[in-house]
Amino acid sequence: MPEVAVVAIFVAKPGKKDELRKVLEANVEPTRKERGALQYDLHIDNDEPRRFIFVERWQSQDALDEHGKTAHIQVFRAKAPDLCEHGEVRRATKI
């Protein structure tokens, strides 16, 4: 299976930036320890400080699918509606 790249963007609701940042930061270390995680880096947008950007690389789609089932991602998904104004996840394959 080919490697999968992911760019995930989450924009905090007004007044929720710090809380969203904490929730997102809590995902970094456990995700980096997952099978098939090649890169998992969290960024903050230089022009819009409520926008957080994950740049990810996964060994395979199966590894990415397993990531979505982890407890820490389930916690984020439960909290996201209260914290996120917008979320977008894009998957890509290198050509």
End-to-end distance, in Å? 14 Å
Helix tally?
3
According to CATH, what is the topology?
A: Alpha-Beta Plaits
Number of strands: 4
What's the CATH class label?
Alpha Beta
| Overall average pLDDT | 96
Compute the number of structural domains. Answer: 1
Strand content is 35-45%
Walk me through what this model shows.
With 95 residues, the chain is an alpha+beta fold. The protein has a single domain, classed as Alpha-Beta Plaits. Helix content is 38%, strand content 36%. It is built from three helices and four strands. The chain has a four-stranded antiparallel sheet. A hairpin with a 6-residue loop joins strand 2 and strand 3 (51-58). The radius of gyration is 13 Å and the shape is globular. It starts with a strand and ends with a strand. The relative contact order is 0.33.
